[in-house]
Amino acid sequence: MNNKSAFVNKTVEMSDKPVTDVSKSVAFISQPDLFDPYLWPDNRQNNLIDIVIKMGPREINEDIYPKDENNRNNDWKHMTTILISHEKSPEHFTAYKKWHECELKLNLGRCIDNDLQRVMNTEVQYWKSILERLISITLYLSKHNLAFRGSSDKLFERNNGNYLGLVELLGKYDNNMKEHLNRITTQKLNLAYYSKDIQNELINLMASKVLEIIQQKVQVAKYFSVILDCTPDVSHSEKMSFTIRFVDENNGNLQVAEHFIGFREVSESTGESLTELLLKTLKENNLDIMNCRGQGYDNGANMKGHKKGVQARILALNPKAAFMPCGCHSLNLVISDAASQSKESITLFGIVQRIFVLFSASVYRWQVLKSHLPNLTVKPLCTTRWESRIDSVKAIRYQTKEVYDALIEVAESSKADAGTRNEASSLGNQLLDFKYRETGYADASNSSREKAESLGIDPIIKEVRVRRKKTFFDENTDQDFLISAEERFKREFFYTLVDTVRESIKERFTQFENHKQLWGFLYNLEKLPSSEYLLACCKDLHGALSEGDSADINSVELYSELKHLSSLLPIGKGSPKSALQFIHDMKLVDIFPYTWISLRILLTIPVTVASGERSFSKLKLIKTYLRSSMTDDRLSLLAILSIENDLAQKVNYEEAIKQFSELKARKVKF
């Protein structure tokens, strides 16, 4: 039943006489609050209205505030007035005075609780020292990509993992940790700080602090670039590596920094999905996509696509974020195109791989190979890193005779089975074919002939009988069969190889040519181009760094600044990084603001995605087949502590411990 219904049926007696004394006239009403119209009786008369008018507005004072059942103020509408009234009350001044006196006595050690406070401070320092050691253990294991846990999660048991093992090891030589372990074993402490949950929280805390440092650096630099790359892990899930590139001012020394900010699982490999993942990651790290000035990806279609690729979608959001394909990937693909352009090249690398497989499949055969090859051993081929094939060929190119002798020894050995002896003999005969040592013409041809003669091989490509097709009187006669075997090899292999390399370089390095045309005039500020051409370059750069009415630079001002800066630069300081450092050291940022911005953006644009590739090496070390069930969050945090270990070592332990205690809100207060 609500308050209103409690008074609806009440009989209120009214008098027709005018109201003269409000205090007496109010007495006839049983209970209802006349200041609340919601509680007025329904069958009220004019005399009630006269009473309310005579009472006037309600005056609030601290004695009539609504109270709850525990006699506490419950009037939040007037809480500001209540607090102001309390702060000016004698009770508040008395309580504050006593609290301040108690604080001073505690600090001076003159309080009755002095002994208790001293014990509390000792306990606080004890727990701080324990947490410092546990944080150091966490950083050590993260730095060396070691597993934390074992099959047991209890101290002083076998196979309890590296984390508890290091705790036990410190307990033998460190007094604080020894005392802590004694407390755990004798007093059965619940507050031990060695459980798997505490390990994860310490990892999370330290990695979060590292990310905060990186975010602060990026906020100071303002402009940054993103470097992305993908790879599958041991659990067959696709992982994307995120790296941020920017110009970092480290104690006055300007450096181009690339920092890893984590791995993310890729659900779909489409350009749209990867773009959404990129934007989400930037938002999580408090980075604005509109400050992005560069994109660095590999040459995958989903990344570099002109319409639906990640770079195209990011450019649609921010036209200033220039895309730069990875130079290393581009060169790698040029080698890949060249190595797969003809039957001869494919066969060549097939023989190289067969030689490695033959010797590496047996300990005995590998010992035979090492007895003949004192310097270089044969290398396997790599399906992704085509430049590794140079190392594979190099071992055979410079040690052909030794490899041949090793093959013959295996072919004549009684310890090998018939299949192995036949394979070794076949490979030995193929090494004697001069065609497989023909690496080029002109100078390369001469060196190949000298190599063949030193091995006792006739430096002549064998003639192969060409099948002739019967021709009729009205058909053109094909004279290709009249050319020599060497000429045919030159046409079908060497010329095809050169043409493939030229076209591949032209196709894959178009973006680099565009970059040179836009930014090339800033690579040597000591020798600027002509004034007319320089002004045109400044205008082109102004257009590239503009979006609507917003622009990072002013072309005319940049032109004027470059003219003056060129005469001030010392000899040998014309490179972008040296010029930027000169402006910083001489405190000329306010004099050359647009040059300062332009050079920082230029240095921010990525050249390769090598940092992403290096993060994959850490991924394989952290998430092994024995740790394949690791969660994505834990993997990313451990990778941050491992890759950014230099920053992790600079984390403020005191602040981290304080945050840890506040996060857990444990009984021990820090």
Automatic annotation (TrEMBL):
SUPFAM superfamilies: Ribonuclease H-like
UniProt domain DUF4371: residue ranges: 100-307
An example molecular function term from Gene Ontology annotations: protein dimerization activity
Residue intervals of the HAT C-terminal dimerisation domain: 590-647
InterPro entries in alphabetical order: DUF4371, HATC_C_dom, RNaseH-like_sf
Name assigned to this protein: 52 kDa repressor of the inhibitor of the protein kinase-like
Annotated organism of origin: Sipha flava (yellow sugarcane aphid)
Gene expressing this chain: LOC112680472
